[in-house]
Amino acid sequence: MTIISFIAFTALVALIAYRASRKTNEKSADGYFLGGRSLTAGVIAGSLLLTNLSTEQIVGLNGSAYESGLSVMAWESLAAIAMVVTALFLLPRYLKGGLTTVPQFLANRFDTSTKTITSALFLTGYVVVLLPVILYSGSVAISGMFDIPEAFGVSNTQAIYLCVWGIGLVGSVYAVFGGLKAVAVSDTINAIGLLIGGLMIPVLGLMAMGDGSVIDGLSVLTSEHPEKLRSMGERTDPVPFYTIFTGMMLVQLFYWGTNQQIIQRALGAKNLEEGQKGLLLGSFIKILGPIIVVLPGIIAYHMFPDLTSVDQAYPELVSAVLPPAFLGFFAAVIFGAILSSFNSVLNSSVTLFGMDIYKQHINPQADEATVVRKGKMFGIALAVGAMIIAPFIANAGSLFDYLQEINGIYSIPILTIIVVGYLTKRVPAIAAKIGLLSGSLLYIVSQFFLKPHFVSQAVAQAKLDGITDPSALAVVESQGYFGLHYLDVMAILFVLNVLIMLLIGKFYPREEAYTQAYTKQVDIKPWPYTKAVGGLIVLIVAAIYIYFA
Question: What 3-state class would DSSP assign to 538?
């Protein structure tokens, strides 16, 4: 029954996506990369959420909640605010410029080589980090739900390999041969299923804790684990509260406002009004995110306190509380979420390569059909590379923390040059190149050379001083790098890069002030209620933090 419902739901989604996208001209750049610039608010919101809410979020963030509690909800709650900022500030400018990729703006504002460097940074991050993490975390979830090692008589490692290549091959078909519209439509259907299934898991978990009563389950959670229900993280937690005001919002603004895999959905909007409504609808739903990606981890902590890996928390809870009749459906939804993130990143990679590298540098005379075809070939190669790398992430620790820290190599430098590019008119191209390179190199040196050195020295000294308690050593470790969290490092480098770019702009300004042209690709009349709804969302997020403080 489980297998039948899994196959049936997966096939239904594929059929609907095919029928919805078959009339789109996939041989044109707009048709393949942006769904013909025809996406409406509901499709944009659903695709945004499912692109984001994959297993590296569901498994990884619930694993962090298992370990550290409610404070990790900052990754979800502050995302809502970042989406509001994107709707108000960035999206109008993107659509005014008729962009297909975010780096295209950098070519207009600075120069072609700045665009190429940025696209290369995106692609490197996607193939080395993001795609493998999506594949690995998805494989952990699917293997756990279906008990693949037992079903096929293989080891856990072999099961991960099977799942990685299965997910990767199916996802590649969606992304490489379907285009953005097929991806977006399948995302929307799976988003509905994920909201239904995702909300079922904590409800069933609380019922299991409360002998059939959700209220009693909540009572058990609040009385036995009050330390897990604080919104404000301590210095030793993955998200200390003060980092919300340092690097956290910068990471969120990069992800929701400038990351190609995410913003490509809004770039495909039929007009600015639909794009803004889609972002704000997604933002409002994102406020409910902690119920799906944080609360189950805390419930799992109560039910399975001795797990060997925190990333086992969510699969264990699903297997324990979900009735067998629903397991196939929910596994299909999770499979859809995995595919969504994988094929969204892959589609964005194809877009970046085709538009910003192949068309720009390899074959400038290529027609749109050739650009799409070469992009697809690149996507296939990228997918194979990610499938090869994915199983080696098994020893990376907490998946979500690993992903966020590694992403800092390219996220903050790219955000810096986009913000400075839009807010200034005379900062020259050389400033953007220096900002990109210095931001990436300084972050690598800081987090992967200096930090391990100083932390190991501090821990060694603490042990010499007789400190052996693990919690005390964790405090020493958190303070061993001058008390700096990696989010603090991001904030420091962001400010430093902005200052460097502004100084270069002061002494070596570009000859002519930059003025953005309106390409008239879509109507850019804003939705009249954007500011009011955005303000309401910000107030709700603040109220949630105050309530759980």
Answer: helix
Using alpha carbons, select from 73, 142, 7, 133 the residue that is nearest to residue 397. Answer: 133
How many angstroms separate the CA atoms of 114 and 111, rounded?
6
Residue 242 DSSP class? G
The CA distance from 239 to 229, in Å, is: 14
Q: Six-digit token pair at 450? A: 């200096």
Pick the CATH number of 2-408 from 1.20.1730.10, 3.40.630.30, 3.40.50.2000, 1.20.120.790: 1.20.1730.10
Of the CA atoms within 13 Å of residue 338, those in its CB half-sphere come to: 32
- Does the pTM surpass 0.85? The reply is no
Each residue's pLDDT expressed in tens, for the chain with a length of 549 residues: 566 666 666 676 666 666 655 555 545 555 455 556 777 888 888 778 777 777 667 888 888 899 888 888 888 889 999 999 999 999 999 999 888 778 888 888 999 999 888 888 888 888 877 888 888 888 887 887 777 888 788 888 888 888 888 888 877 776 566 555 566 666 667 767 777 888 889 999 999 999 889 999 999 988 988 888 888 877 777 788 888 888 899 999 998 998 877 887 788 888 999 999 999 999 998 888 888 889 999 999 999 988 877 878 888 898 888 887 777 777 777 777 777 777 777 777 877 888 788 888 888 888 877 887 888 788 888 888 888 888 877 665 556 666 777 888 888 899 999 999 999 999 999 999 999 998 899 999 988 888 888 888 877 887 887 777 776 766 667 666 777 888 888 999 999 999 999 999 999 999 889 888 887 788 889 999 999 999 999 999 999 888 887
